[in-house]
Design a protein that fits this description.
This protein has seven helices and seven strands; from the N terminus they run ββββααβαααβαβα. It is an alpha/beta fold. The chain has a single domain, classed as Rossmann fold. Helix 3 packs across helix 4. Bound molecules: zinc ion.
Protein backbone atom coordinates (compact mmCIF):
# COMPACT_ATOMS: atom_id res chain seq x y z
CA UNK A 1 0.00 0.00 0.00
CA UNK A 2 1.34 3.43 -0.97
CA UNK A 3 -0.98 5.89 0.67
CA UNK A 4 -2.11 3.81 3.62
CA UNK A 5 -0.69 1.59 6.31
CA UNK A 6 -2.74 -1.20 7.81
CA UNK A 7 -2.54 -0.90 11.61
CA UNK A 8 -4.70 -3.60 13.19
CA UNK A 9 -8.11 -5.22 13.29
CA UNK A 10 -10.54 -6.21 16.04
CA UNK A 11 -14.04 -7.52 16.50
CA UNK A 12 -16.88 -5.01 16.54
CA UNK A 13 -20.15 -6.38 17.93
CA UNK A 14 -23.12 -4.29 16.75
CA UNK A 15 -26.88 -4.68 17.21
CA UNK A 16 -27.03 -6.44 13.81
CA UNK A 17 -23.89 -8.58 13.53
CA UNK A 18 -20.36 -9.07 14.82
CA UNK A 19 -18.29 -7.17 12.30
CA UNK A 20 -14.52 -7.01 12.02
CA UNK A 21 -13.10 -3.51 12.25
CA UNK A 22 -9.89 -2.79 10.34
CA UNK A 23 -7.87 0.37 10.96
CA UNK A 24 -5.64 2.17 8.46
CA UNK A 25 -3.42 5.23 8.71
CA UNK A 26 -3.16 7.65 5.78
CA UNK A 27 0.48 8.75 5.48
CA UNK A 28 -0.16 12.14 3.88
CA UNK A 29 -2.73 13.42 6.37
CA UNK A 30 -2.40 11.27 9.49
CA UNK A 31 -6.11 10.49 9.14
CA UNK A 32 -7.43 7.20 10.45
CA UNK A 33 -9.69 5.34 8.02
CA UNK A 34 -11.77 2.30 8.86
CA UNK A 35 -13.21 -0.73 7.10
CA UNK A 36 -15.94 -2.88 8.60
CA UNK A 37 -16.21 -6.37 7.17
CA UNK A 38 -18.51 -9.30 7.68
CA UNK A 39 -18.05 -12.83 6.34
CA UNK A 40 -15.63 -14.23 3.77
CA UNK A 41 -15.43 -11.46 1.19
CA UNK A 42 -13.38 -13.50 -1.26
CA UNK A 43 -16.18 -16.09 -1.53
CA UNK A 44 -18.19 -13.58 -3.57
CA UNK A 45 -17.54 -12.41 -7.13
CA UNK A 46 -19.16 -9.09 -6.22
CA UNK A 47 -19.21 -7.79 -2.64
CA UNK A 48 -22.12 -5.91 -1.04
CA UNK A 49 -20.53 -2.63 0.05
CA UNK A 50 -21.07 0.88 1.30
CA UNK A 51 -18.47 3.61 0.77
CA UNK A 52 -19.38 6.02 3.57
CA UNK A 53 -17.81 9.41 4.13
CA UNK A 54 -17.64 10.51 7.75
CA UNK A 55 -20.47 12.67 9.04
CA UNK A 56 -19.95 13.09 12.78
CA UNK A 57 -23.21 14.93 13.31
CA UNK A 58 -25.23 12.34 11.42
CA UNK A 59 -23.32 9.16 12.25
CA UNK A 60 -22.76 9.81 15.97
CA UNK A 61 -24.94 12.72 17.10
CA UNK A 62 -28.28 11.60 15.59
CA UNK A 63 -28.56 14.72 13.40
CA UNK A 64 -31.69 14.84 11.29
CA UNK A 65 -30.21 17.50 9.01
CA UNK A 66 -28.96 14.78 6.69
CA UNK A 67 -29.53 11.10 6.02
CA UNK A 68 -25.96 9.88 6.70
CA UNK A 69 -26.57 8.10 10.01
CA UNK A 70 -29.66 6.35 8.71
CA UNK A 71 -27.83 5.29 5.55
CA UNK A 72 -24.90 3.88 7.52
CA UNK A 73 -27.25 1.98 9.80
CA UNK A 74 -29.28 0.60 6.89
CA UNK A 75 -26.12 -0.44 5.03
CA UNK A 76 -24.84 -2.32 8.09
CA UNK A 77 -28.25 -3.96 8.52
CA UNK A 78 -28.29 -5.02 4.86
CA UNK A 79 -24.81 -6.52 5.18
CA UNK A 80 -25.83 -8.35 8.36
CA UNK A 81 -28.92 -9.74 6.62
CA UNK A 82 -26.82 -10.83 3.65
CA UNK A 83 -24.18 -12.35 5.93
CA UNK A 84 -21.29 -10.78 4.04
CA UNK A 85 -20.13 -7.36 2.95
CA UNK A 86 -18.07 -4.31 3.85
CA UNK A 87 -18.29 -0.64 4.82
CA UNK A 88 -15.41 1.62 3.83
CA UNK A 89 -15.53 4.49 6.34
CA UNK A 90 -13.58 7.40 4.92
CA UNK A 91 -12.62 10.36 7.10
CA UNK A 92 -13.72 13.12 4.77
CA UNK A 93 -16.23 14.99 6.86
CA UNK A 94 -18.76 17.40 5.40
CA UNK A 95 -18.37 16.29 1.77
CA UNK A 96 -14.67 16.91 2.26
CA UNK A 97 -14.69 20.41 3.80
CA UNK A 98 -14.12 19.30 7.39
CA UNK A 99 -16.24 19.46 10.53
CA UNK A 100 -15.73 23.11 11.46
CA UNK A 101 -16.47 24.35 7.96
CA UNK A 102 -19.52 22.11 7.91
CA UNK A 103 -20.85 23.77 11.06
CA UNK A 104 -20.36 27.15 9.37
CA UNK A 105 -22.18 25.85 6.29
CA UNK A 106 -25.01 24.66 8.54
CA UNK A 107 -25.23 28.15 10.03
CA UNK A 108 -25.64 29.57 6.52
CA UNK A 109 -28.30 26.96 5.87
CA UNK A 110 -30.09 28.02 9.07
CA UNK A 111 -30.33 31.42 7.40
CA UNK A 112 -31.79 30.01 4.18
CA UNK A 113 -28.93 28.83 1.93
CA UNK A 114 -29.13 25.32 0.52
CA UNK A 115 -26.33 22.80 1.12
CA UNK A 116 -24.56 23.47 -2.18
CA UNK A 117 -24.86 27.28 -2.02
CA UNK A 118 -23.60 27.25 1.58
CA UNK A 119 -20.44 25.32 0.67
CA UNK A 120 -19.85 27.64 -2.27
CA UNK A 121 -20.37 30.74 -0.10
CA UNK A 122 -17.53 29.47 2.10
CA UNK A 123 -15.29 29.13 -0.96
CA UNK A 124 -15.55 25.37 -1.42
CA UNK A 125 -16.76 23.27 -4.32
CA UNK A 126 -20.10 21.58 -3.75
CA UNK A 127 -18.43 18.20 -3.25
CA UNK A 128 -14.72 17.77 -2.45
CA UNK A 129 -14.84 14.07 -1.68
CA UNK A 130 -12.07 11.91 -3.09
CA UNK A 131 -12.41 8.16 -3.30
CA UNK A 132 -8.82 7.34 -4.34
CA UNK A 133 -8.10 5.51 -1.08
CA UNK A 134 -10.84 2.99 -1.85
CA UNK A 135 -8.58 1.35 -4.40
CA UNK A 136 -5.93 0.48 -1.80
CA UNK A 137 -8.47 -0.39 0.86
CA UNK A 138 -10.25 -2.82 -1.46
CA UNK A 139 -6.98 -4.31 -2.67
CA UNK A 140 -6.09 -5.06 0.96
CA UNK A 141 -9.15 -7.32 1.07
CA UNK A 142 -8.61 -8.64 -2.48
CA UNK A 143 -11.91 -7.11 -3.54
CA UNK A 144 -12.33 -5.39 -6.90
CA UNK A 145 -16.02 -5.78 -7.68
CA UNK A 146 -18.82 -4.18 -5.67
CA UNK A 147 -22.58 -4.16 -5.35
CA UNK A 148 -22.60 -0.62 -4.07
CA UNK A 149 -25.27 0.74 -1.73
CA UNK A 150 -25.65 4.41 -2.69
CA UNK A 151 -28.05 6.94 -4.17
CA UNK A 152 -25.16 8.84 -5.72
CA UNK A 153 -24.30 8.03 -9.35
CA UNK A 154 -21.26 10.37 -9.13
CA UNK A 155 -19.77 8.05 -6.48
CA UNK A 156 -20.31 5.05 -8.76
CA UNK A 157 -18.53 6.89 -11.56
CA UNK A 158 -15.66 8.00 -9.31
CA UNK A 159 -15.04 4.40 -8.23
CA UNK A 160 -15.26 3.13 -11.79
CA UNK A 161 -12.71 5.75 -12.84
CA UNK A 162 -10.35 4.17 -10.29
CA UNK A 163 -10.74 0.79 -11.99
CA UNK A 164 -13.15 -0.60 -9.41
CA UNK A 165 -16.00 -2.61 -10.92
CA UNK A 166 -19.45 -1.61 -9.68
CA UNK A 167 -21.65 -4.44 -10.92
CA UNK A 168 -24.79 -3.00 -9.35
CA UNK A 169 -25.99 0.18 -7.62
CA UNK A 170 -28.32 -0.65 -4.77
CA UNK A 171 -30.49 2.32 -3.68
CA UNK A 172 -30.35 3.23 0.00
CA UNK A 173 -33.53 5.19 0.53
CA UNK A 174 -33.92 5.79 4.25
CA UNK A 175 -33.76 8.47 6.88
CA UNK A 176 -36.05 11.03 5.25
CA UNK A 177 -37.32 13.39 7.92
CA UNK A 178 -39.16 16.73 7.83
CA UNK A 179 -35.82 18.37 8.65
CA UNK A 180 -33.84 16.96 5.74
CA UNK A 181 -36.37 16.88 2.89
CA UNK A 182 -35.08 20.19 1.55
CA UNK A 183 -31.45 19.03 1.91
CA UNK A 184 -32.18 15.78 0.09
CA UNK A 185 -34.12 17.66 -2.58
CA UNK A 186 -31.03 19.82 -3.16
CA UNK A 187 -28.81 16.73 -3.37
CA UNK A 188 -31.19 15.30 -5.97
CA UNK A 189 -31.42 18.55 -7.94
CA UNK A 190 -27.86 19.87 -7.76
CA UNK A 191 -25.71 16.79 -7.07
CA UNK A 192 -27.57 14.19 -9.11
CA UNK A 193 -28.60 11.89 -6.27
CA UNK A 194 -31.35 9.45 -7.19
CA UNK A 195 -34.19 9.82 -4.70
CA UNK A 196 -37.78 9.06 -5.75
CA UNK A 197 -39.58 12.35 -6.40
CA UNK A 198 -42.75 11.49 -4.49
CA UNK A 199 -40.70 11.13 -1.30
CA UNK A 200 -39.46 14.68 -1.72
CA UNK A 201 -42.81 16.25 -2.55
CA UNK A 202 -43.71 17.31 1.00
CA UNK A 203 -41.19 20.12 1.05
CA UNK A 204 -43.75 22.80 1.85
CA UNK A 205 -44.51 21.21 5.18
CA UNK A 206 -40.92 20.20 5.69
CA UNK A 207 -39.84 22.45 8.51
CA UNK A 208 -42.45 22.55 11.20
ZN1 LIG B 1 -24.51 13.85 7.12
Amino acid sequence: MDKLKFIDACELPTPWANFSLHAFLEHATGKEHLVLTLGELTNYSSVLARVHSECLTGDALFSQRCDCGAQLEKAMQNIAKHGCGMVLYLRQEGRGIGLLNKIQAYHLQDKGADTVAANQALGFAADLRDYTLCKELLAHFQVSNLRLMTNNPAKVKALQNLGIIVSERIPLITGLTPHNLHYLGTKAKKLGHVIPKHLLSNQKNAVC
